[in-house]
Amino acid sequence: MRILVLIDGSKWSQKAALHAIAIAKRKNAKIILFSVLDRREAKAIAFNLSMRSDKIGEIKKFEEQIWKEMKKSVKEIMGSLLELCHEENVNCSMKIVEGIAKDEILKEANSGAYSLVVMGAYGKSGKTRIGSLLEELAGIIKPPLLIVR
């Protein structure tokens, strides 16, 4: 059994990973921690930052700094979860890709390699309603989908 755990950096995705670890321990399953980095997010943040600071000429510099921080942050989160898996004697690996989240998640989840997909109910914004990515994915992910709140 292989479990795909979607990690977006939110506390909700980390909570989902904890549930996946518990399942993997009971079922002797392998976990794959999966994250998608979307450069469009870095561009949007850089644009907003440069507009607020009246430094529109430095937008590219801001974008590169934000992109590096996004990569670093997700690697740190996934590294911590990987350590936890090893402490719990759960077989675990991580995979980080660049692209559009919905497309990359669907490609990975529907590859036929997974028995279960686990994700948090909310994204990084922490809004009180189920996130739009979840709404888009729920009906088209082929393996069973566990949504953790």
Fold and architecture overview:
It is elongated and about 55 Å long. The chain has a five-stranded parallel β-sheet with strand order 3-2-1-4-5. Helix content is 50%, strand content 19%. The protein has helices at residues 11-27, 39-52, 59-87, 101-109, 132-137, and strands at 2-6, 30-37, 92-98, 116-120, 145-148. The model has no long low-confidence stretch (mean pLDDT 90). β1 (2-6), α1 and β2 form a beta-alpha-beta unit. By secondary structure, it is an alpha/beta fold. α2 (39-52) packs across α3.
Strand content: 15-25%
Shape: elongated
Adjacency order of strands in the biggest sheet? 3-2-1-4-5
Helix content: 40-55%
Distance from N terminus to C terminus (CA atoms, Å) equals 23 Å
Average pLDDT confidence is 90
The low-confidence runs, each spanning 5 or more residues with pLDDT under 50, are none
Largest sheet: 5 strands, parallel
Number of helices: 5
Helix/strand structural class: alpha/beta
Record field, number of beta strands:
5
Key words describing this protein structure:
19% strand; 5-stranded parallel sheet; alpha/beta; elongated; single chain; 149 residues
Describe the structure concisely.
The protein has 149 residues and is an alpha/beta fold. 50% of the residues lie in helices and 19% in strands.
